[in-house]
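Appendix B. Raw example, untouched.
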Amino acid sequence: MPLSRRLRPWAEQQPERPALRLGTQSRSYAQLWNTIARRYAALLALPRRARHHAPHQPLVALCLGNHPLAPEWLALALATPTTVALIDPAWPASLQAEMIEALVPDLVIHSENAGFGLDHAAIEPPPTQADQPFFIGFTSGTTSRPKAFLRDRTSWSLSLEAGRSVFDLNTESNTLAPGPLVHGLTFYALAETLHVGATFTGMTRFSAQTAFDLIATGIHRLVAVPTMLEALLREALTRGQTLPLRQVTTAGAALSRQLLAQLPQAFPQARITEYYGASELGFVSLAHHNPSGEDKLSTETRGVGRAFPGVAIEIRKGGKSLPPDAIGTVFVKSPHPITGYLTAEGKHAFQRAGEWASVGDLGALDVEGNLTLAGRADGMVITGGYNVYPEEIAAKLAEAPGLTGTLVLAQPDAYLGERLVAVVSCAGDPPDLAAFCASRMARYKVPRAFYRVREWPLTSSGKIARATIARWLEKGDHRLELLT
């Protein structure tokens, strides 16, 4: 990991500059490096437990979430031969305990002992090696149990180097990433900010009001999921103010074209970069959008851009490559994918075919190389005897004027087997959504009912909580307004 060779120089060149800010904690680059050197010395003094993964270096199970000291521990893993397992404190206690037991860490860090190691004398950590693991992450998917994966330093080393030019990062790229540090979007934002010697700011819990105030303190870049961008847009409109952001990076969920068109009202000078990736694959594609709202993607598709530098994308079906615009499974060839999962739960979710890898996402490439996603193979539903992908319909529905968010779900139906239901959010009154869909897709793909939600329920990572919406639909919850 390049941070093993970059943090020390940053600590020498700009010792007083803030490196990390979260809640009540702030660390300069000199303080951060000293903290890392002390903690690493303390970890080396611990007895090493026997395990088959990360056997030759300390393994720490980090159960801190967005605790103010969590970024220090993540920086430790980035800069020293240490592995951290990111345990989500939002999980049930029994699941946390089960995952910790399976991973066999040398140390478990929680809020009560987050200051571990600061009483040790500092030692100079040795350089890290490319093939060393540095974190164990978890991804949910087709099963309810998290799937653990191990990532080595090579993939992030290469993407961090490429990302400096891709995202136009430098020492002035002071970044706010308000999402959960256990998720890749925020953790990676921390890594790339420290990599270029800028200041990283996190939040213990996302609040649009607090984020708005933080950005005004000299933050030039925001990394957040689309639902957070929508909340900041509402806050900007409520205050009648704009924010001086130069860059906005978003991923983790679809960015609707309607929301994209409205964001200059909040960030008029920001270049917005949207990327698609997966925990298992790393970066896959990206698209840059200009402050004017114009972008390089066709407005007729829900594209997620072109291949990230060093990445090749292919659409396959039955092991064969498909022609442009045909929907199939998205395969990626790059140095970024994981080697596999540590637990049996993930054995069907990630597949390799020689140099190529896939997580089962479905999509299509146009003749210019723009990638459009259509959902997951395991997300297909059968309605009236037809195979459909709800995400493909939601992406097309997102092109309707005024919509800022869309979700399409399937409900049991005695006649059709499953019926499609759409839930949308919008700034004003929505258009006739049934007519809009009927003019753009086959009749069997048109949702049978449309609902409006004033505020989306969110998961801990800031994505739309699909399971909560499904429960609201089942119970006829008042927070869903049936559109006629």
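End of appendix B.
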